């Protein structure tokens, strides 16, 4: 068998997530930078496909909402088949694009081979330095389902329809100045990278410009370290205020999340 024939023998089989979960976890845990909860959602909510040949499973891919590849991976012994199999992955469902973290060299390289347009979507941040700064006195408590109206009415469109689940899971903190709510923090444990926690913040408009966003991030970073977790974050490229706050809180980005259109 030649290496070209190997690609012909392989096929893509829709499967249950559990069948390839160990591969997904190992693949993403082995990347040089962690992915955030948004990227995890686009993997976990996608249709998983096992890539199989006569030797068994040799890789996998994931297709989100029929149009977006969010994972593509092959075992090292079959990586030479990458271009042929990526072309086949692009023909699944109605695939038109990939969402790829730049830390995933194999996936990114194959997406770029086929690209027509590349758009940077977001920064992925990691905590890189400890920060101590003077800040307004602010206390925090974990929100509960009883706080649903407060969270919905005071956070604009920051939270999506999953806010009730976040409250039930204890993933939202409320920042208070003299018992007045001024901010919300997000603390989402990784579902693929289970030693990581994605953090985020929202400051109510009337209280912005006072360092509360940085205070909230520092509080969440402290919570993460106390729990033995690595704090990470994602930030849309156009959200300059959020990016500045993350950097002031001791975080930095070396990874981008890019949309590669075919």
Structure characterization notes:
Helices cover 31% and strands 34% of the residues. The chain has 262 residues and is an alpha+beta fold. A twelve-stranded mixed β-sheet has the order 1-2-3-4-5-12-6-11-10-9-8-7, sandwiched between helices. The longest helix is centred in the last third of the chain and has 15 residues, at 212-226. The protein is elongated and about 70 Å long. 38% of the residues are buried.
Give a short summary of the structure.
This protein is an alpha+beta fold and 262 residues long. Helix content is 31%, strand content 34%.
Keywords:
Aminopeptidase; 2 domains; 12 strands; 262 residues; alpha+beta
Low-confidence stretches: none
Please provide the ordered H/E string of secondary-structure elements: HEHHEEEHEHEEHHEEEHEHE
Report strand %. 25-35%
Q: Which structural class is indicated by helix and strand composition? A: alpha+beta
Tally the helices: what do you get?
9
Largest sheet: 12 strands, mixed
The top-level CATH class of the largest domain is Alpha Beta
Number of strands: 12
CATH topology of the largest domain: Aminopeptidase
**CATH homology-level superfamily of the largest domain:** Gcn5-related N-acetyltransferase (GNAT)
**Per the principal axes of the C-alpha atoms, what is the gross shape?**
elongated
Over all CA atoms, what is the radius of gyration? 21 Å
């Amino acid at each position: 068998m030649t290496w070209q024939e190997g690609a012909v023998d392989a096929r893509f089989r829709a499967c249950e997530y559990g069948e390839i979960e160990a591969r997904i976890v190992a693949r993403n845990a082995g990347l040089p930078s962690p992915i955030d909860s948004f990227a995890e959602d686009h993997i976990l909510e996608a249709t998983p496909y096992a890539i199989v040949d006569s030797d068994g499973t040799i890789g996998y891919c994931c297709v989100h909402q029929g149009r977006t590849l969010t994972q593509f991976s092959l075992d090292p012994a079959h990586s030479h088949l990458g271009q042929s199999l990526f072309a086949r992955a692009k023909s699944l469902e109605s695939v038109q694009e990939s969402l790829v973290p730049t830390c995933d060299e194999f996936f990114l390289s194959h997406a770029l081979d086929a690209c027509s347009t590349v758009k940077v979507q977001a920064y992925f941040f990691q905590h890189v330095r400890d920060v101590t700064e003077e800040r307004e006195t602010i206390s925090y408590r974990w929100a509960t389902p009883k706080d649903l109206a407060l969270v919905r009415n005071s956070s604009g469109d920051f939270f999506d329809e999953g806010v009730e689940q976040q409250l039930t899971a204890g993933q939202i903190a409320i920042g208070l100045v003299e018992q007045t709510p001024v901010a919300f923090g997000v603390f989402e444990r990784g579902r693929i990278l289970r030693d990581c926690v994605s953090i985020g913040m929202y400051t109510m408009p009337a209280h912005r410009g006072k360092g509360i966003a940085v205070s909230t991030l520092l509080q969440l970073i402290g919570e993460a370290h106390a729990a033995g977790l690595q704090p990470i974050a994602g930030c849309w490229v156009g959200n300059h205020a959020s990016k500045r706050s993350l950097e002031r809180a001791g975080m930095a980005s070396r990874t981008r999340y890019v949309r590669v259109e075919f």
